[in-house]
Design goal:
Length: 142
């Protein structure tokens, strides 16, 4: 693993240590957008990104990134991993379920000519998470 992919790995390791400031500073400048396609929200810059990371701890105090893989090609870095934990706090407007979850996540970082992130995209299965936590019922025959 080289360059920026290593910085993304260090960001994830920082998340698992709960060192959000150091983690976010590895990747995000003040104007870099992190677009979460699973919930339709965009977090711009390290400060907003750290706020979102802290919010994940409200939902799950033991959330961790596991089984991460990183690929860097040209001006793109792709990180594929799972987030695991227990929902011991509120998730949006859903109360704690105290159930465990495992969500597969894919992040795509686009790099500028200086080798720093220009934008980041996250793709995850929010509907599947709600099903695992028991907040919504599966449709008949599912």
């Amino acid at each position: 693993m080289t360059g920026f992919a290593n910085r993304v790995r260090e960001l994830h390791e920082g998340f698992n240590r709960r060192d959000f400031e150091q983690a976010a500073s590895l990747v995000f400048g003040d104007s870099v957008p992190y677009i979460n396609h699973g919930n339709g929200r965009t977090f711009t810059g390290a400060k907003e990104f750290m706020g979102w990371l802290n919010g994940t701890l409200t939902m799950s105090s033991d959330i961790r990134i596991v089984e991460a893989r990183y690929v860097e090609v040209d001006d793109l870095v792709v990180a594929q991993f799972s987030s695991t934990g227990t929902q011991d706090g509120p998730f949006a407007f859903f109360p704690p379920s105290n159930k465990t979850f495992r969500v597969d996540v894919c992040e795509v970082y686009h790099l500028g000519a200086d080798g720093n992130a220009v934008e980041a995209h996250q793709y995850s299965d929010g509907l599947g998470t709600l099903l695992q936590l028991g907040h919504i019922a599966p449709p008949d025959g599912f």
